[in-house]
Amino acid sequence: MSDVHVVAISGSLREASKTRIALERLLEASQQAGATTELIDLREYDLPTFDADCDREEAGDADLLAERVREADAVVLGSPMYHGSYSSPLKTALDYCGFDEFEGKTVGLLAVSGGAFPVLALEHLRSVCRALNAWVIPHEAAIPNSGSAFEDGSFVDEKLEQRVVTLGRRAVQYANIEPEPDSFESDQNVGAEGK
Q1: What pLDDT is recorded for position 63?
Q2: DSSP letters of 43-71?
Q3: What is the pTM of this model?
């Protein structure tokens, strides 16, 4: 598995991001499973709001972001849940990507919530990945009550941490899986293709 490269994208811009902490732990597990890893921290990327009339090469760091995603064998999308969905920074990042970056790629999903389980954020991310013909790992990591889930940058609940660790291992394990046939929606989804 040493040739597997796992990239995690953090959809949180907060300085003390629980999403980022969870993704860092996930990437540690991916490394322990033999992969090379990279955290894409969207705070470090200049990504203007997506405009379909603007070429990706002219949109700040959008081209660099798409290149990093393309180079990955597996991608893990991590987001806090905002208003029952995933974050706008992650939405913008995904809008700058398309089939070239995601088609046939293994994708893991992780969502964090200050309250109840962030199920809707995970469902919405799964729908986006399906439209891009990505293969989404069935196991996903949901972190509810994030204010009490971490202490000094570490997980408090071992079972919750194990879900995240398992997702990191599965990203490596299934990085080269043969994906299912195209989804019904995929031929109708142009997205940022060619942008």
Answers
A1: 96
A2: GGS--PPP-TTS-GGGSTTHHHHHHHHHH
A3: 0.90
